[in-house]
Amino acid sequence: MKNLKHLLLLGTMGLFIGGCNKLVNGYDINPNAPQDAPADQQLTAAELAEGLFMSGEMPRLTGIWADFFTGADRQYQGFELYNTSANDYDNAWGTAYATTLAQARLVETKAQAVNNLRLLGIGQVVEAQIAGSIADLWGDVPYSEALKDTPGKFDAQASVFAAVQTLLDQAVVNLPKNGISPGARDIFYQGTVTSWVAAAHSLKARYFLHVKNYAQAATEAKLGIASKAGDMLIPYNATTANGKDANPYYDFITSSRYGYLSAEGPAANPAAGSYAYQLYAMRANAKTNETSRRNYFYTTASNIYLVDPNVVNGAFKSNASAPLVTYYETQAILAEALARTGDAPGALAALNNLRAYNAVTYPAAGARYLDYTSADFAAGGLVNTVSGQTSDQALIKEILTEKYLGMVGQFEPFNDLRRTNNLIGIPKKNNASPDIPQRLLYPQSELDTNPNVPKPIPNLFAKTPVNS
Amino acid sequence: MKKTLLMSFALVFAFLNGVLAQTSTISGRVTDQKTSEGLPGVTVLVKGTNNGTSTNPDGAFTLSVLSPSGTLVFSSVGYISQERAIGGNSTFAITLSPDVKQLNEVVVTALGLTANRDQLGTAQATVKGAALVSSGETSVITALSGKTPGVLITRTSGDPGASANIQIRGASTITGNLQPLIVVDGIPVYNSSVGDDGILSSNGGAGSNVVGGVVQASRLNDINPDDIATMEVLKGAAASAIWGTRAANGVIVITTKKGASANGKLNVSYRSSYGVDQINRTPSLQTKFGQGVGGLYSNTSSASWGDRIADRTGGPDMYVTDATASNYLGYATLADGSRVYNIANGTAANPHGGKNNQTTYDQARSPFTKGYTWDNIATISGGDTRSNFYVSLGNTYQKGIAINHSDNDRTTVRINVDRQLTDKFRVSVNSSYIRTRSNRIQQGSNVSGIYLGGLRTSPDYDNSHFIGDFTDPSGNIFLDRQLSYRNKLGRATAASPITNAGYDNPLWNLDRVRNESRVNRFLGALEMTYDVTPWLNILNRSGVDTYTDNRYAFLPVGSSALLTGSLTQEAIQETQVNNDLIARAHTSLGPNVTLTGLVGYNINARRSSQVGATATGFINPFSPPQLNNTPSTNRSPFNLIVEQRTAALYSQVDLGLFNQVYLTGTVRGEQASTFGPQAKSTFIYPAVSGAWQFSKLGLLADNHLLSFGKLRASFGIVGVQPTPYLTQTYYTSASSGTLSDGWGTSLDAANYGGGFVRSTSKGNPFIRPERKAEFEGGLDLRFLQNRIGVTLTGYTNKTTDAILPIPVAASTGYTSTNANAATITNKGLEISLDGDVVKTAGFSWNIAPNFSLNRNKVTELAGAASINLTGFNSVSSRAVKDYPLGALWGTAFAFNENGSYNTDANGFPKLADNGTARVIGNPNPQWRGGLNNTFRYHGLTLNVLIDHVHGTDVWNGTKGALYYFGTADELSNETTVSAAQASTLKLYTGQTVATAYKPNNDGSFTFRGKVQNFGSGDVALDEKWYRNGLGNGFSGGPGAPFIEHVYYTRLREVTLNYSLNQPWLRNATKVSSIDLAVTGRNLYLWTNYTGVDPETNLTGVSNVRGIDYFNNPSTRSLIFSIKFTY
Hints:
Number of strands of chain A: 8
Strand content of chain B: over 45%
CATH class of the domain at 1-17 and 31-235 and 321-325 and 409-468 in chain A: Mainly Alpha
Largest sheet of chain A: 2 strands, antiparallel
CATH topology of the domain at 1-17 and 31-235 and 321-325 and 409-468 in chain A: Serine Threonine Protein Phosphatase 5, Tetratricopeptide repeat
Strand order of the largest sheet of chain A: 1-3
Distance between the termini of chain A: 94 Å
Helix content of chain A: 40-55%
Structural class of chain B: mainly beta
Oligomer: heterodimer
């Protein structure tokens, strides 16, 4: 009897032990999160991440350094004086690689698996643009060995640009082939193939320009985005801040970091506005009146600072979509590329396209963008008042200045300033610095985890290889 | 499961099999020699056999014996054993006398079973319930402060019911559950503190790393300290190893009160106490300079670098009331009908502008007033020889010191019943229902934080007018606007019709912002014990702990944290079911060997859920908090489930040798749902401990000096379970957390029809529990008939495989993964003494000092230089290889090799390495000590508890920010220099004082700030340095200068208690005693810390330490209490 009890007890214990696994198994899977998502849903996320990267904190920062904006408070006062450290870039680098590049690549893989070549092409353009931007801003960066299990080597900047060109070539081939349109999941072009192909060419033009391959840049620009309707924009729809679909400039300036960013002038004369703000007025001539364009990008009516980026009714208002690659940029590339390859008339025509664009886009009373003629660039001409400046020099300077003032808040002007050795001559903000900043710093997160980061670590004023 | 386990319990059963046939029955009663009352639980054993029983609650026993020739052995903890020959007798009357060499101290072990302290091989601290109550703290956790060595309690804020962190013997894990396991009456219960980051982050105690918002409660606060009989703190691995992966941070075993009375008497008691709470310390602020920058008054500036207030003309301010004036901005109409207009800003010619008024305000105190605590509890308990019961009903209401909407209201009911149903079968039920309601206030890094807006407010602004109607220059009226120092008129425009206050006016915030939590909790335990044979019993203990926390967080329209307003309404539910089935057997193998063994099977299931929604952008600003008062696109519902299961088999063997050596071995084999599928499935946690009462050696036995001596040593391994759901890579909605630019600006794919990303955190299928191995050794000594006691304990432990999110190079497509990557070590020493300095019939003085130190070090960190736990860009608390866990990390000034500052061309210090962060402080104290004094004079008892924390670093981030804003008290200095000096004395910008400032009439120059020499000659530290330069800890300046190396001594508790229990009282009133007590809590703080309280920590229940960033202040209290016992 007693022994039976013991046996029973032992037996029960045995059952428990056998039951252990059953009791705990299967509960390691998170009931709150999926383990996969459809490719087109992931495309939306990749495009949003790319859009945020190209209209968020890094363009704000480079916009301060390009003298569009003024760092007015807290850490932004430091940025104003080029005070910045490696961990200022952790977030942006993560956005670029992990939430844009990696996701775009997954979209491509998934699209390829179901032979959706159109979606594959779209993914490739998204990837090309973020990879190109990373190389633009940081120089040598991981690319060929990126997105692997272990941290990869840093590729030479030029080779990243070359790879980007190859990727865009593939995209141009893939896009017109078969595939199911992602429709509204594609927030840039709603799956429209022609728009994507044109954008791919415009991007090719951009990255040829960055490596100073002006002939190719011109060729691609001619195939690029042909009208304002074809612009690649990230749509921002919110009417208020914190709506999570508001223009990041608007959200940052009016809400998230109220008071950090202005467009005021130096302390001695804040009302004068930033250099870009002043430049609009300085350029007025018989054929040009920039007031309405200035008022599109800047405002004096927001009650934050005396001059602010236009968050009220202009480029940075809450529901202002942000440009990623545009007709305007394409024409500006074409103009500069032609000017630099000896086709002054072609360059002038492209410049006048930009001016025509301005006339239509910034139509307020008093706006004036009459076509320039070659005489205007001759010595002593309307836009060549500097003694000793050739007409070609005047033309290139005018094209770059035009582009600088037409793309406020985007990366390209900062890229141009660095590529052209600050040809248009924006002032340094910190007299103790050798130059305006020439790159972004490698982020602390990558320094800590990737043994392949170039040594010595280049400083803020070290030109990236394609610019040096 | 593992072989070892099978073997271990096969072993237990092997010695249980010697069962004998029995013949005659004997019976008897065992009484206490001192009290003559029946002694329960005395072991009665036939010597040399396994045949035995134990006495019932009345001291009686019956036993069948084989032959009359045997000898009975009567033994009980704390009594001298007796032997009696059976000799044919059938009844026995035995009297046991107490063992003076042994303190009759019964402690409760990890499994909720009793043991004799003097036989333990591990250190175990016991805190009596009465000591928790008399501390005047309403929370069990904070009541534990300073009472036992090696336990560090850090409170998050002084708010009522706020969470507090318990750290035992240093930090042993980085990201997992950081809190000790809490076991109440044998059942593990929740001590979660679910912050705004939700149930997955809090993980039943891992805590929240949120740096702003409100401080939630620790759920252990739900337990009423009055219901607690004892609280055992099991610090080391060996003592707690039986709980495996839940024990790495120690185990706190709480035993609630049981009724007890053999004679059926009913005990009724009622205690009421009323306490007044006061703000303890506030940061000191300047009142000499007004709002503005550059020495000029500005009506809207965020800073107070403005004009000198004393130079103002006095009288009312000059309002801009002329509607045609260019600086006419309209006006605000206050509740009393008065109007506030714009005031002209200062100019070089008139630095005061239109500001004439010289009145200043104490911004650090204005949001606060006196709080109070009212605590009531009634209990009824009693019992008879077969059953006991205890019933209590308590309510504690605490109103915080914030002027409104800060309180905590806890009602508890407890019913504990046990009954001996048959001679062999005993059942007990312990149950408790708790309802807690609280209102919480905003703090920390949060533009709606009480102190963030409060301490930044200029000294010349009166926050008390916080509401008005704004009339714009065109005559449009905007009703019910928040007025703040940066927006005094509550201005809004037609284009952006919501008033932006910049930072919330703290008084508006306390009036309008709401954060409420309502908790309903049930704790229940059913324990059944069946004595199969006299030497074998089976115990099954089932328990459930379940609670629902209904919360809402409401920021009305115009809150700085979210201008359009926001409401989060949610229900958090956690349920934990636990069952232990334990078989226990004891036997003696010959006269000098006793053996007890147990085998247990434990299953534990925990399920947490969180359901709710957040909505923003209220349509009707006057509506009460309603989710549907928002555009449908602005609502984000959420639901979360976290489920964890653990199953384990464990065994314990206790061996007693020669009545002086006691050995204990435990082993636990465990499987859990949180282990990675690729990791092995079962992990074993062994422990051994030994105690040797060397004072029982013949040589020492008759010694009059040393009454007791014990050497102990132990080794054990415990673990920490991985946080759930680290094993796979998931997809996450591309929400604002993913699509964020680091400055608060973010996108949410939900606004674009939805979108998903593969998580940037990579899953790890190999994740396994963290393991902590600990050696502990110690010595317990008592002298002069136990009048003086000394306990010494040393330990060293090492946590390997600590789990942490390790950053992954983002270029791999992930930014982090979780890995068993880190190693942490702790070494420490704990000493406690207890001595009766004076002990006479009428008067006694007991003094009980304790001392502890712990050295913590992160020795391995997976190659990462540092892991951010939480904090800010300027200063964070991190895990850094070769530094103590929680090390403060930030930027510092550059120093030359000879220790002097590395200065710039103007003679000012420069940032080290261009502002690269490094370790700049250690927030772990060098040592801590407590000193408890108890004086007794007849019925009068005075208890004084002082504790000291030595050498800990706190980042005074509040001050660092206030330097930027110009409100810190240190910035009220003015310096006058001669014209000659001024012409060369440089400012940070390189200007000289002479060029930057206007001369005084005598040609000298006066500036706000001071002259300092950083090694390259005198320089002027003025606004250019503090605000625009590197002289603040907020914008550009380094964090290191605001790290304060702190010591503090706290008069934590002074209690004067008078007990009235004379016979006349009972005769006259039927009240057997009346206890009157006055307690002063946190009465005085001696410290060199310049902030609110060095014991504060912004992120509360977390591994982060030493972060003070606009934390709400702590309190001190005076509590009056009266207790009637019938």
